[in-house]
User: Fold these one by one.
Assistant:
Number 1:
Amino acid sequence: MSFTSIIQSAAIKSLSALYGQEFFKKDFQINETKPEFEGDYTIVLFALVKALKKSPEVLGHELGKLLLNNYPELFSSYNVIKGFLNLQIADEQLTAILLQHYNDENYGKQPANQKRVMVEYSSPNTNKPLHLGHLRNIFLGWSVAEILKANGSEVIKSAVVNDRGIHICKSMIAWQQFADGATPDSVKEKGDHFVGDYYVKFNDEYKKEVEELIKSGSTKEQAEKEAPIMKKTQQMLLDWEQGNPGVIELWKTMNSWVYKGFDETYKRIGSDFDHTFYESNTYLLGKDFVREGLEKNILFKKEDGSVWIDLSAENLDEKLVLRGDGTSVYITQDIGLAIQKFEEYHLDKSIYVIGDEQLYHMKVLKEIIRKLGFPFADEIFHLSYGMVELTTGKMKSREGTVVDADDIVEEMVATAEKHTKELGKVNDFSADELRELYEILGLGAMKFYLLRVDPKKRMVFNPEESIDFHGFTGPFVQYTYARIQSILRKVDSEGSVIGDETSDISKLLPLERQLILFLEKYAGTVSDAADEMNPSLIANYVFNLAKLYNSFYAEHSVANAENTEKKNLRLRLSVMTAHIIKSALQLLGIKVPARM
């Protein structure tokens, strides 16, 4: 139980004893005490003044005295400033917390809660490689899954691969037209990049053909419809849907090239999935539910035979759910897949990590599921996130201006190498150790930078800024961890071990107190991050922990502390800080180097 919860419980019991009535959590707030005042936690009393007909000062002193009297092991002093009761946690309580948890590598994690959750993320198209936008999505989804696991949920990580449709056929037609039988192996190119190149070639050829048709007298609209390469692509899509063996074989071959490329990228960035859904297997899902919706008058048909739902009452207008020719639209298969997920995996919650441009689509999906009568509609959660851009601006895959994930990873590793060499502290590393270090730092910098921002916010990714060893970055936190490991190795080499002394530690110094108080907040931060599905809470916490430890270490020696008790105290502080840094970074998908 956190200090906030303990204080809340103690305050409720004390208020009831003082004033003979029942009190609840909502009756008052507990905050951290502001730096300009003395104390650790503050009870805000204003909400109680009217009901109890007492001034804030009188109320504060009455409650403060009783808390000190009833909980001497918890509080050492109090003061009242206007309507704020500031409480100081007793040194003995802080050292007891440290002794209990300092060597617990699982501190902050909760036991199983019997909840089963699916987190869907990545969801790439097989006509192009993963790009920078995918990376924010992947890192966010993976981290949220790990945070939910740390809070006791059973989590299924999933992806939906968009492996069919007109976009996929564009790459296939371009390969037929321009590749002359080339394969990823023959040109020594990664499979997803290879196929993505033909998606760009399609667009270049399509533009050229449209321009030629316009020159010969066609309108732009006519030219876009009649361009030969587009007509071939549309025919290929029909052939695929009808099961044409040659088209199916080419589709399987080109997709296999892409999957191999995706797998290489996923492995390098440390992402994984428990289950992958393929659009080619799910695109017909939902048609049965559309028929059911028509029978129940939840959906309606228009004159052209298309099926719609009227969500005007929910301010979502009318939405097409099935075309007039009976073919599915995206929402059709999403209805079917959403239902399949809950029924097949017995989920308590289904989380979709999807960009904020799909807010409308996800609202419509939930409403349709609700109107169809499924009880789990409210357990469909859209974890919306803002787009990520580079300092050079927006990216467009069809024009070949997207920054591929592999390229940005290479750039990050190279940037990590440059900065590490500038520091000049790795001369004794072997070539293999250096390669591993650059990879850990480069990927850590990128993940931290993309996750430190609230998911709802749009952001600009700056590779150079992300790897600054002195800024709000992953490498700064990683360096703090490595520094602590160096301290612990030095103490160990001197034959020192952490003793069992629990008494005679003398008074805790201000930075020792601050560090223990901050370490104690980790479990609450992990819980809040799960409730909000927001890894930036973890990133901000661990950065501030690293900053605080560095301030502590700058002021107080660990190895050469003034006495054995202080040395043991500071060693425990160092060990617990290292464990929490490692734990927090692991929740963000970031590794920690033992030295750097």
Number 2:
Amino acid sequence: MAAAGSVFGEEEIHLRDYYYVVMKRRRLIFTFLFSVVLLGVFFTFTEKVIYQASATLLIEKDNPNVLDFKEVLTFDASSTDYYQTQYQMLKGAGLIRNLIREEKLEDDPYLEGLVHGRLRSFLRKQPWVAGVLGRFLVPQKPEDVFAAHMLQIKPVRNSQLVAVTVLHPDNRRAASLANTLARLYIEQNLRNRYEISTQATELISGQIGVLKDKVAEADLKLQKYKEEHSLVSIPSLHEKDQFLQDAKLQLMKLQAREARIAKRYLPAHPKRIHLRSEIEGLDEKIKSEETRKIDIGSAAIQYDELEREAESARKVYRALLERSEQTHSEAKAQASNITVVDQAVPEPRPARPRPFLNMFMALVLGLLGGIFAAFLAEYLDPTIKIPDDVEKGLGLDLYGMIPKAGRSNAGSLQGEIFSRWNNVPNPAAEAIRALRTALVFKLRHLKGCHALLVTSPNPEEGKSTVALNLASAFQQNHFRTLLIDADLRRPRLHKALGEGCERGLSDVLEDSCDIVSAVRRNVAGLGFDFLPAGSRLDHPTELLGTEAAAKLFSALRQEYDMVIFDTSPYLAVADVAVLSEHADVGVIVARYHKTDKRHLKDVRRIFGEGNLKTFGIVMNLVEPRERHYYYHRYYYYGYGGDTPPQ
């Protein structure tokens, strides 16, 4: 297909463009599809038959609850990684080593073949490979191979169930391995929990001994302090404060009484002397009690601190004693949080290969891959393929499309001799007539003789065949037509017409003969005249650019209604640029699926500077099967006649 966009505007892509690519590249698609299906069949019937067996486990979140002390044991079973940890433990190397040892898998042919590997074994036998890659060809560990190729852990969504699946060529062996692995996993879990309980018990026992010594030491300190301070009992600080308050209140009352009787009695009065004596005695007792309070308060504070330490040590000691007994009981009666829900049983149907699934996948992949390869090939193909490549991609006019004719009608110029099909319906003939009509409309505003220049970017693209057929078509439309073989380097028209090349254009330009003797009238009975190239020259470009050539072409235009120049490829030589000065319309022949689009990009620059009034592209040798895509836009395919030769 054409590119999605170009300098000439955005191109609209239709579904028929994709259909066209698929239909045109159907051979590639079918080849790719057939290859993939063939590979699928080969691998399906050469793949080893493998059975699978699954044991279903229930793994519950359960904390051991051995201790309440985080510094002794931390076990966060509510973590989101808990189950992932359990799945990885099921694939653990230690667990699988125990399985291999118990099931005697060291001599299992299937596991041994996976460990050594065919390719790895073959490479190790090659001396030059072993010398370079020897360290990378060491056999893998059996437990790693088993976990990677023979074991599958499949959690059941939204549940606490997990399926432990084992693959093996023997269905009974697969079931035995799955059940043994589940049992070993439960035993490992119990062993781990028992070891945790045992370690916790040992840790508690050690701390019990430390706390026992600490309690004894605290009691000893408390007793020693009581003996040092002769403390039989420690009165409460609240009682001591109440005594002082009462004594001070009594003192205040006595002092008030003394003040009252001082107004009535002299200081030497016995009542005043007695009252003063009571006041002094009470004051002395208060001061003594305050001093004693300070001493006893300091001793009480120290005593309370020692007593708290001893009581705290006793509480921790009692708690550890209780936990020690509980842990010891749990260690003896430990229960697992993992249960086997379903035992693995031998499956009668193999898990691999899956013929129907493999064939379906091969068909889908082959079809998608073939379509992708078709579009990739179309994208990488730089040649012209559809009209949009010319009209939208390059911004050039497309005059017509000429289909490829059957072999029975093929001429010596890789094309068709139109004039010989007058009575035979043929799509190529209709395409030539359509091209003739398009050129007549292009030249309708010009009076007198019309000159056509027929060229191509490269050789072998059919320009000479198109020029020959156009000459016959214009003659049938009652145009006096002259066909000039202006390809002085590699002339070919004379061979197709069965004429000689001894007298022609080059001879006329060099005055070796006159134009009358050089022109072949009614050549081969086709009704038009023909001027061959003539003798070979070393300087054709200079000869075509002379004044004599200009006079000759001007004279020929006076005699004929249509002059057709068959020129050299314009990318090879400069002859075309010289001859374009003497033509009105340029017809560039591009071969379907051969002419590179890059070779047509310079057409506007090469021919736009000459005297050409217009120029366009003719797509030649188009595959007849492309007619569905082109919708008969440029020609009708066999309308009104029999089916053309394929």
